[in-house]
Design goal:
Elements: E1 3-9, H1 13-28, E2 35-42, H2 46-55, E3 60-62, H3 66-69, E4 76-79, H4 86-95, E5 99-102, H5 110-124, E6 130-132, H6 140-150, E7 157-165, H7 182-185, H8 189-205, E8 208-216, E9 221-223, E10 243-245, E11 251-258, E12 263-269, E13 278-285, E14 288-293, E15 299-304, E16 315-318, H9 339-356, H10 364-383, E17 387-388
Parallel strand pairs: 1-2, 1-4, 2-3, 4-5, 5-6, 7-12
Antiparallel strand pairs: 7-13, 8-11, 8-17, 9-10, 11-12, 13-14, 14-15, 15-16
Helix pairs in contact: 1-9, 4-5, 5-10, 6-8, 8-10
Length: 389
């Protein structure tokens, strides 16, 4: 069976998630499309890079990402870094003939995202595969929702409501990580988690055509973080800690018109106490409705208009072996998958795309379109007017 040498750039939270996905993919999807080999891990902090090598069973570690991109033995590059270096790393890897899986959002600016999209065209001529890590559209329940929509089970989609609510940054003592700094992140909540909501909304209902929005920053300054590791709100700093300004959004909300005729709304915030990873979508069509909540990610709720009046209402489908990716995971509905299995599904799609020579559904062009929506949302909030995407 073919093996693919993997280089992971960034050994933090997302680096770990990618390693879990690569490592578990062949254990779940067998025979695997190819076997990922953990070749090299990179982190700018030498101690973190060395620890990640041992912890994740890489053959070697480095502190300069170019060592991965320029290594002729590396086939696949996973980019798990802050947003402002996605473009430089991805373009260099594509030009070096490496298959690239880049974390979301694609870049910190639309200009960088479009440069990355442009770089894929020449690379694709040489068979190079590119993918962005929008894993939530790969949840079996979301794939089932897509099937119901595509086969006409709920008719024409009329309305889409999507939320992504978290609480990890609701505490003002949570430190000022790179996610709160515009020159690194590009956008705040909108780019970080709002982009996931946009991706699922467009996956299910088609591209967004026009938006009107508002964005708000609730906590104008935060304690300066010690060190570069992003701990996602798990550490709180004292009242005497030095503080610095937050220059990105804590919340973004917008109305949307979709090109296929649907209307909808999307809201994202990281300041919603009690909401941990509350990614939801509800769609209403002419023949029925669909509802999904990531905090119950193995369930899809559906309602069909042609059910008799006495039993019409939402019913819950528990995803399992009869559904998308089901035969590769667990044998009984209700045994459930979690984030780790979802990353393995993501890696299966990525490695399958490489094996088949076909660009995956979340390629850089799809991710760049999400960045166009993000740019329109920010422009609409600034101008207080509808903006075309």
């Amino acid at each position: 069976m073919k093996k693919l040498n993997v280089g992971v750039i960034g050994a933090g939270f997302m680096g770990k998630a990618h390693v879990v996905g690569y490592s578990n993919m062949p254990k779940l999807f067998w025979p695997a499309p190819a076997i990922p080999v953990m070749k090299t891990v990179c982190d700018i902090v030498p101690e973190i890079a060395a620890e990640a090598k041992d912890r994740f069973s890489f053959e070697k570690s480095c502190t300069d990402w170019r060592d991965i991109v320029n290594d002729p033995e590396i086939d696949v590059v996973s980019i798990c870094t802050p947003n402002n270096v996605h473009a430089e790393m991805s373009i260099a890897a594509l030009e070096a003939g490496k298959h690239v899986l880049c974390e979301k959002p694609l870049a910190s600016t639309l200009q960088e995202a479009e440069a990355m999209e442009a770089a894929t065209k020449k690379a694709a001529e040489k068979g190079v595969i590119h993918m962005t890590a929008y894993q939530y559209r790969r949840i079996p329940a979301v794939c089932l929702a897509k099937k119901f929509i595509d086969d006409g089970s709920i008719g024409e989609v009329l309305n889409v409501r999507c939320t992504y609510l978290q609480c990890w940054s609701a505490d003002p003592s949570s430190p000022l990580s790179w996610r709160f700094q515009k020159d690194i992140a590009g956008a705040g909540t909108l780019g970080d988690i709002g982009s996931h909501a946009i991706d699922i909304a467009q996956y299910l209902a088609g591209d967004i055509d026009e938006v009107v929005s508002m964005v708000k920053t609730y906590i104008p300054e935060r304690p300066v973080q010690e060190g570069g590791v992003d701990l996602l709100g798990t550490v709180k700093l004292g009242a005497d800690a030095q503080k610095a300004p937050v220059d990105v959004d804590d919340e973004a909300s917008f109305l949307a018109r979709f090109k296929d005729g649907a209307v909808g709304s999307i809201e994202a915030t990281r300041n919603a106490w009690g909401r941990n990873n509350f990614l939801t979508i509800e769609l209403h069509g002419t023949k029925g409705s669909i509802a999904f909540n990531y905090e119950r990610l193995n369930e899809l709720q559906v309602c069909f208009a042609d059910d008799p009046d006495y039993c019409r209402g939402f019913k819950t489908i528990y995803t399992g072996p009869a559904h998308f990716y089901g035969p590769a995971t667990w044998n009984i509905p209700g045994m459930n998958i979690g984030y780790g299995e979802l990353k393995a599904i993501e890696m299966f799609d990525f490695i399958s795309a490489i094996a088949d020579g076909v660009q995956p559904s979340t390629n850089f062009a799809v991710a760049a379109q999400i960045e166009r929506v993000v740019a329109a949302v920010l422009a609409s909030a600034r101008d207080k007017a509808w903006r075309k995407v």
